[in-house]
Design a protein that fits this description.
homotetramer; five-stranded parallel beta sheet; 333 residues
Chain lengths: 333, 333, 333, 333
Amino acid sequence: MRRVGFGLAGTGRMGRVHAGNLAGRCAVAELACVYDADGERAAAVAAEHGVPVATTFAELVERSEAVAVATPTGSHAELTVTAAQAGRPVFCEKPLSLDRATTVATIEAVEAAGVPLQVGFHRRFDPDWAAAAARIAAGELGEVTYFRTSLRDMTPPDPNFLAGSGGFFVDVTVHDLDVARWLVGAVAGDITEVTAHGAASDPAFAALGDIDTAVCVLRFANGALGVIDNSRSARYGYECSTEVVGTLATVRVEAPRPVEWRTPGQAAYPLARDFEERYPTAYTAELDAFARCVRDGTPPLITGRDALAAFDLASAATESWRTGMTVTVKENT
Amino acid sequence: MRRVGFGLAGTGRMGRVHAGNLAGRCAVAELACVYDADGERAAAVAAEHGVPVATTFAELVERSEAVAVATPTGSHAELTVTAAQAGRPVFCEKPLSLDRATTVATIEAVEAAGVPLQVGFHRRFDPDWAAAAARIAAGELGEVTYFRTSLRDMTPPDPNFLAGSGGFFVDVTVHDLDVARWLVGAVAGDITEVTAHGAASDPAFAALGDIDTAVCVLRFANGALGVIDNSRSARYGYECSTEVVGTLATVRVEAPRPVEWRTPGQAAYPLARDFEERYPTAYTAELDAFARCVRDGTPPLITGRDALAAFDLASAATESWRTGMTVTVKENT
Amino acid sequence: MRRVGFGLAGTGRMGRVHAGNLAGRCAVAELACVYDADGERAAAVAAEHGVPVATTFAELVERSEAVAVATPTGSHAELTVTAAQAGRPVFCEKPLSLDRATTVATIEAVEAAGVPLQVGFHRRFDPDWAAAAARIAAGELGEVTYFRTSLRDMTPPDPNFLAGSGGFFVDVTVHDLDVARWLVGAVAGDITEVTAHGAASDPAFAALGDIDTAVCVLRFANGALGVIDNSRSARYGYECSTEVVGTLATVRVEAPRPVEWRTPGQAAYPLARDFEERYPTAYTAELDAFARCVRDGTPPLITGRDALAAFDLASAATESWRTGMTVTVKENT
Amino acid sequence: MRRVGFGLAGTGRMGRVHAGNLAGRCAVAELACVYDADGERAAAVAAEHGVPVATTFAELVERSEAVAVATPTGSHAELTVTAAQAGRPVFCEKPLSLDRATTVATIEAVEAAGVPLQVGFHRRFDPDWAAAAARIAAGELGEVTYFRTSLRDMTPPDPNFLAGSGGFFVDVTVHDLDVARWLVGAVAGDITEVTAHGAASDPAFAALGDIDTAVCVLRFANGALGVIDNSRSARYGYECSTEVVGTLATVRVEAPRPVEWRTPGQAAYPLARDFEERYPTAYTAELDAFARCVRDGTPPLITGRDALAAFDLASAATESWRTGMTVTVKENT
């Protein structure tokens, strides 16, 4: 079970998310080294996770088995090609570039280098979406007749960010377009038509000639229609949900509700079958919590005394069951 | 961010859960060594995770900074004391012992050794339960007036297991009793009375003089009532839920539904505010998936070509928005 | 489809609920006459619904085909017997009496009179509960192994009411006890044991020697356990919910959520199949709304002009679909 | 509280729905007379509800205070005008006509006659939709930025029906267009643009040159976008749901779930506050059930004996609470 050491380029918001995951939560990937054009920030992230900092991207590549690129969009293509040509597999945040020719050239350079490249469309790795995709691909929906997805941010980004974002559809809608291809394309075929509408509910966006709300109608090769709606400021929260309607069943992914499957006359969602399904993180967390006690000298949350108190209560329950009488308990004996 | 190396004793079901977490998902704890009285099973688990196997418990203790005990109940107390007396912090699955005197002696021996001991009541580390506990302790419920919890297995355990389980209340109800102390005791005080009722819906349990369903009524120091119901065979799934009613608010933990807070005239549940809250595991999973590609030579799930196709669709959407016309797309260009 | 004319005795809160239903919403029953010891209040209710007022109970009986008794508890038995002996079928709010001997005497007098008597346990007539009861009786749950129900008021009643209420269990728990017999007794047999616990979270109840929270554990003839919890002040709202666990399925009635059926690994709830199921009251309400316009001379909510505007928009949609172009609309043409 | 007597023209599916409501569930409207071109069917419906049958529409008008038109679409306009010119207020199912000129002429004739006309857009009278509309109109959403609604039938209509339906958008989408004007138009202004897309997932519809699925994108005067999706065969059930996103809050109407209000970081739904809110139909149903017993001689569902049994159990609970002991009960004493 060898782990793969990643060199991480970029320590902005997404970079720091990746740093924390590589250093603490990944099972196969691990953090090997950190680089950022802002050397101080790189050093701080490296120190936080106890890994070396690289002073140049070339040094990062040198010290890593694979490279994760989470820098500003403008350098994605160049760093990806550099790493690939040095023989390093590359994970790159989307988009590769805001320019089609550069995107194609990057892909071709990576292909020529013969290393794998993965782009950061994270939604394909969420358990709910992945489960839905697998069941759709397996034919459980029959033929897809309608598709709907919403991706909405809670609050708009900094206007400075917008200038280099590539525009609303390239920055936001692209996630749903990838999902449409992956989730629905498997059974409904390629997307053949796109019709888009935009609006700026916030005058700040209108002033920039930009939009903050969009609707995109899709047509798939099998004739089915799809609708994407996107917003930069839904206000109530971050929305990322979908519905796929098929001739045999309909599925809805609408966290925090469980994934729902609809068949004639009924909506159903799966139930946990055992403690591992019900508690996917509690067993990891209890060991990490205790490891922190060991490392930092803090007291555990549940001691032997707690176990004794619970045992005494369980014994009282046993006695009550046997005698049919209420048992009075005195804790902390 | 030093990790703490755990020696794991026991490779039954819970032991293997811990092995997988220590080896792959923990951020602070890590797997250092494995031991089991069944040496072959220990070797297999050790090999799976690339760590050494210990042939004796003493060797495990020697090679570890802390020890996790997940052996059959009968050896919990002895192994805990042995490890503690060797200066190792101990994480032990519940119960420490089925015998009160042994439980007390174990606790006292660990205290004399001056090392921390944590017992495996995992529910305290689930995000939903922990959030509820924190808000209750902070007074958000006001005074607690009623408490209810259900712990139900989907299917009954092997009858062979039952003989050494300590009985229904010590084996099953003890989890809810610990939760009652932790979740409610903080504001309602100690549990002062216990009244228990049992039933055997399955004749196999009745034949053993045992029960498979129980109700346990609690009284807290503040006078509030609590009800625990437990079952070894709920059939529909694994249930682990609670409701705590207070003078200011009521909370329900009923996965897979989100935690619900009730105040006069309204029930509410929290919404994700950004992609990190909404996708707590997708960003870890995408890096692990790519690490597996790197390690094993398999192709990535999302390539540059996928990114290009999504980019082309986003460009078509931009064009449609600008022109007000439907744009025909040809994929795979 | 002859309607049955009811004489209503009692115009307190429940009496006025019945008056409104008999006068406006019942399909087979109708309001024939109203009586109350408080003649002014009776006259007001009678006038509101356009029916005669009776100055004595004897007159009410005389002018009615059946009698509904919604007076204070103390007069239930006497009025019921009087009406029955005059040959009138009687609907009586619960309880018949707070005294067992009087209850039995009342039942025997009604039986001797040969008229039907129905007591007001309304929950048996709620669609959710009735559907669950029918499916349980039909065997869809298999054998019942556990039953749980909650009845909780939002805010406590006036202390003056409590004095004549018969006590917590007779006033509140009796509803759940009836439901337990009806919903579960059909397959689990009679209730053979009762164990009750009470608490007064509000000092005002303790001062009266009364309780405001109770837990009642039941044992059914088949050995299954049941738990009732009741409260006079749940604060967040009025709770009336249940769960029945069986060997084949489990049902939960927890409005405002739809009734949920759980089978191994899955929870499901029914979906509406057509507009009548989806809109059980809208078609009635639209006709009543228009009847009010006719009667009172107020304008309708939806006029022909609204219909024309929607028609024009639908025509624009048709044109857009045919041409593939966006159609600009000018309302109010 | 005078009732308004309606003459009902048309006894097809919608006509029979109206007949049942007018005869049994309306509080202000009542059924006065029935007419249908198919005299036998009219006679059967009239007999079922105990009202006279009219042999001509003129006779129906003569015997009614108001007229409800639920005949096939082709005769809506003519009957509406005839009734209006006879001075009768008219409730007419949608559409008034499939022809714009006839629609306008009908409206003008009714206006000239000076009687009120209401068209059958029932959704405005559903409690969930009406509550959402009222709160939106009151400004609780702030400015509307996005609107989405779905209307989907479970199974397609008979092809014979389609020929005279006016086409998909006039027959189906028109409901959502009315709702868009009512629900959203109040704050977002008139609909200024419509873009529609259609698909035929079922070859039978394609063969007729018709569609069975459609998406309609709206633009409101304030710039906000809206999306309607419609289907003639969603298969899983009848869907009629909406979401309106505003700058202050977002509302979702998605029965059978309760209406949900979203504000920053939270989703909430209202809870019942008392038994009347929780049981809107049970109190009516219990009286109608008893009225049927009286009328038809069948036994009541809940007798005095049931009340006695529940009383005995409540008394046992009281005794158990007082003594702290389990009480054994013997039913049917």
